[in-house]
Specification:
Layout: E1 2-9, H1 13-22, E2 29-32, E3 48-51, H2 53-61, H3 65-70, E4 73-75, E5 77-82, E6 88-92, E7 102-106, H4 107-118, E8 124-127, E9 132-137, E10 142-146, E11 150-159, H5 166-170, E12 175-191, E13 198-204, E14 207-213, E15 219-226, H6 228-236, H7 239-249, E16 257-259, E17 264-273, E18 277-278, E19 281-283, E20 289-290, H8 298-318, H9 326-354, H10 359-374, H11 376-387
Parallel strand pairs: 1-2, 1-11, 2-8, 5-13, 11-19
Antiparallel strand pairs: 3-7, 4-7, 5-6, 9-10, 10-11, 12-15, 12-16, 12-17, 13-14, 14-15, 17-20, 18-19
Bound molecules: flavin-adenine dinucleotide.
Length: 407
């Protein structure tokens, strides 16, 4: 039997970031991951995320940002338009006195960078290819049975194990979910014209298509969300026919588009755990909530969860208080639930507003979008939300946060 202070289940972006944020506190930490260790040979831009300034600040603080930025593509303009009307809105970093609006990062590179940063921390142990057989908790500990009947006793357990969280299920935490009735087709594409560091998104009647710039000036990552029938149709097409459909859907904004690798589809579901906490077990990131990728906010939201939880735990440890105190965990839950609910509501409104082709709604959104484009102060509010500069941010993610690595 081994005793540890904190067990984190899941070595995704959220789990590894949390381990790094907590490492300097000197607590004993174990990260349990069912898959392999992150590896740079898996970096292929097949799965990317648009990370915002708030996430960049957190990742900079823990020293992982330079390695992430080295393979990321920054974007300094965003163009969003409706395929079905004259609605159009544009955001420019210069107008916000910024050098970029965000970065398109390879998900695996984020994990590789975090994993590398964890190497010097002897108080953090990572177990890959790990099977969790059971979880049980008493008033004082969580008992975790892993691999071949190896037992771990942990004072706190964090479920960072993604959308199908085993921790959430084992703790019988209630889940609200609904199907967005869309699949996201993801692929890397070659573009005839350079992307010019611009992120683009067109709202089609069947769902949004995003063209996210990659480090090669003539490559983008696409996230094409559409109803399951259309997704099945697109995936069954020979590459040439897919390319034609894609080019047409993008209004040829970057000329002829061509698949660089095979497209993959992900079913899209909204998931929201009604409770993020049971005793000494707490959920973070996708284990607690998953949202539509149309605004590229899922990973950002998860990174803010772990920054918030680490902030509260650090406060307690510094004050020599018990970091497993239920009041701390409840504070975390209240804080982050409010932020997650705001985004879930916004995503739903967006999705419904743009997937409706009623003439009146089309007109309202066209006028609304064009109106926003003419109103600098309203655009500034929207841009602040997209940059991650709005809401109740953890200290490390706030605009004035120092981004140097903690000693
Ligand atoms: C198509 C698409 C596009 C997206 N685009 C964006 C974007 O542009 N910007 C953005 O911010 N977000 C985006 N997201 C969301 C983002 O990908 C997720 O929010 C983020 O990756 C979740 O990170 P996580 O660490 O919570 O979970 P995951 O990355 O899923 O990590 C969970 C880890 O837990 C492990 N695990 C699971 N079960 C167990 C178990 N029983 N035992 C041990 N380990 C376990 C898994 O192997 C995995 O390594 C997108 C999502 C999709 C589907």
């Amino acid at each position: 039997m081994q005793n540890v202070d904190i067990t984190i289940v899941g070595a995704g972006s959220a789990g590894l970031t949390l381990a790094l944020l907590l490492a300097p506190l000197g607590l004993s930490i174990v990260v349990l991951e069912q898959g392999d260790a992150p590896h740079s040979s898996n970096i292929n831009h097949q799965r990317v995320s648009a990370l915002n300034l708030a996430s960049m600040r957190v990742l900079s603080h823990i020293g992982a940002w330079p390695a992430i930025a080295a393979t990321a593509q920054s974007y300094n303009r965003m163009q969003v338009w409706d395929a079905d009307s004259f609605a159009r809105i544009e955001f420019d970093a210069k107008a916000e006195r910024l050098s970029e609006l965000g970065w398109i990062c390879d998900n695996e590179q984020v994990r590789v960078a975090l994993y590398q940063q964890l190497q010097p921390h002897s108080n953090v142990r990572l177990e890959f290819n790990c099977t969790i057989n059971s979880l049980a908790q008493s008033e004082r500990d969580v008992l975790i049975n892993i691999n071949r009947q190896q037992l771990l006793l942990s004072r706190l357990l964090v479920g960072a194990d993604g959308v199908n969280s085993m921790v959430r299920t084992a703790m019988q935490l209630p889940l609200t979910h609904w199907d967005y009735e869309q699949q996201a087709i993801v692929a890397t594409i070659n573009t005839a014209q350079p992307h010019q560091s611009t992120a683009r998104q067109v709202f089609l009647p069947t769902g949004p298509l995003a063209l996210l710039p990659l480090p090669d000036p003539q490559q983008c990552s696409i996230v094409w969300s559409c109803n399951p029938e259309r997704a099945a149709e697109l995936l069954a097409m020979p590459a040439q026919q897919f390319n034609q459909a894609l080019t047409a859907a993008s209004n040829s904004v970057l000329g002829v588009l061509q698949l660089h690798n095979d497209p993959k589809a992900f079913g899209l579901k909204m998931r929201y755990a009604g409770s993020w906490l049971r005793g000494r077990v707490v959920l973070v990131a996708d284990a607690a909530h998953s949202i539509h990728p149309l605004a590229g906010q899922g990973m950002n939201l998860g990174l803010m969860d772990v920054a918030a939880l680490a902030e509260l735990i650090s406060e307690y440890v510094r004050d020599n208080k018990d970091f497993t105190d239920n009041r701390l965990l409840r504070r975390y839950e209240r804080w982050r639930k409010a932020e997650a609910q705001t985004l879930i509501t916004a995503m739903e409104a967006f999705k419904r507003g743009f997937s409706n082709s009623q003439p009146l709604l089309k007109l309202v959104r066209a006028v609304g979008m064009s109106g926003i484009n003419q109103l600098p102060w309203l655009k500034a509010q929207i841009i602040a939300a997209a940059l991650g500069n709005s809401g109740d941010l953890p200290k490390l993610a706030q605009p004035q946060a120092k981004t140097a690595r903690r000693a």
